Structures are given as structure tokens and as C-alpha cells.
């Protein structure tokens, strides 16, 4: 995973998911997790963009 992707996952998780997976369930799930708490959204983004 490139360094810019990791930084983007940490700073703004939904954007990282969107750039990697596009719009869909993963993006909505990432937005919800980030709005609830930032940390779960970040973990989800790191796992989702790992592929």
C-alpha cells in the first residue's frame, strides 16, 4: 500500500475508501463509522484499501 494511501486513510478515511472502491456500500459504511467515531472509520479504511 502506498504511503499516500495510508496517510489518506488516517486523515480522511471515507475519501480513501472512495478513491479505492468508488461509491457503494463500503463508502457508506466508512462514512457511518467515521461519523460515529474516527478510529473505527480509520481501521475500516485501512482494511478496505489494503487490496
From TrEMBL:
The chain crosses the membrane at residues 26-47. InterPro entries: PMP3. One of its GO terms (cellular component) is membrane. The keyword Nuclease does not apply. The keyword Transferase does not apply. It is found in: Membrane. Signal peptide: none annotated. Keywords: Membrane, Transmembrane, Transmembrane helix. Belongs to the UPF0057 (PMP3) family. This is YqaE/Pmp3 family membrane protein. The lineage of its organism: Bacteria, Pseudomonadati, Bacteroidota, Flavobacteriia, Flavobacteriales.
Amino acid at each position: 500500500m502506498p504511503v499516500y494511501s495510508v496517510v489518506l486513510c488516517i486523515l480522511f478515511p471515507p475519501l480513501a475508501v472512495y478513491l479505492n472502491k468508488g461509491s457503494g456500500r463500503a463508502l457508506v459504511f466508512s462514512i457511518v463509522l467515521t461519523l460515529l467515531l474516527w478510529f473505527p472509520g480509520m481501521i475500516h479504511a485501512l482494511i478496505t484499501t489494503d487490496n
